[in-house]
Amino acid sequence: MNSLMLEFFVGNFQLYSMMKLFQQVTDGALLHPEGIYRELAPDYEDYVYNPKYLLFTITHELEISLKLYELINTLTMCKNSYNCPIRASSQLCHIGTSSYVEYFEVIQDGTDDILLSCHNHTVMIDPQTRRPKAIPNGSELAKRITNTKSSKRVQPMAPPTGAFCNIVKVQYTDTDSNSHANLASYVTFCINTLFGAVKQGYFTKDKLYNGNIRKVTMLYTGESLIDDQLLVKTWQDRAEDSKVYFALEKKGNIIVHCSFDYYPKTKQPSQL
């Protein structure tokens, strides 16, 4: 649906840009003049200025291929002498009473390699009550879905005693049109906390931080607004030290669960 260049990802850490890309694809799908998305949210043009509903994401499941890291290495070394067109698409794979699941792909033009894929579970919310709102004609729209790509339910993980902690404050630039912190901002909070943990020797650095992330999962159980103070906790999986978890707390309650699953060192991208 969208055609982009891979320079979008080049930087010190690319995960933030990946998350922003998926948000752009979501908005583009809802604004497309044809198709089932248009029937799902027919008045999306007025979403920011006169919202009749809000769209809150419940879960994200993002998978990143090694091919993407190889392309990023190439772009970083070649600077402006190498281009890699990519295209991004979004499809609905489930519609429920008040929520729906989307499947995204970012594909390399020419090879059709899947660089990124992601499942998003989104709920339609009443702007007055901040509670779920029924999707108009949801049952009828569900009958027309042909994409059967499913996802597993993201499970929350309780932080153990002694988890590494970091305090962050939600800034205006961390928020979106719903006036709460967005996906990319929460990922940034987690990355910065992880870096602090590695720097202080809390994690097994040689098995974790120098690798590349294979999978990111996010589960939202609450929201944070401008000036909210969050306590970000992180810890390694006891059985797999290539997996780390995060819990973001607001006033003692966990509002976001997150995990990063790293590729093993034996499966790192080649230096092109």
Core attributes:
272 residues, alpha+beta, ten-stranded antiparallel sheet, disordered N terminus, 5 helices, globular
Kindly summarize this structure in a few lines.
This protein has 272 residues and is an alpha+beta fold.
Describe the 3D structure:
By secondary structure, this protein is of the alpha+beta class. The protein has five helices and ten strands, in the order βααβαβββαβαββββ. The chain has a ten-stranded antiparallel β-sheet with strand order 1-3-4-5-2-7-10-9-8-6. α1 runs antiparallel to α5 (183-199). 30% of the residues are buried.
The neighbouring-strand order within the major sheet is 1-3-4-5-2-7-10-9-8-6
Structural class: alpha+beta
Low-confidence stretches: 1-5
The SSE order reads EHHEHEEEHEHEEEE
What Rg is obtained from the alpha carbons, in whole angstroms?
A: 19 Å
Assembly category = single chain
The helix count comes to 5
Query: How many beta-strand runs?
Result: 10
**What overall geometry do the principal axes of the alpha carbons give?**
globular
Helix coverage percent: 10-25%
What's the pLDDT, averaged over the residues?
A: 80
Largest sheet: 10 strands, antiparallel
Q: What distance lies between the first and last C-alpha atoms, to the nearest angstrom?
A: 29 Å
Strand content: 25-35%
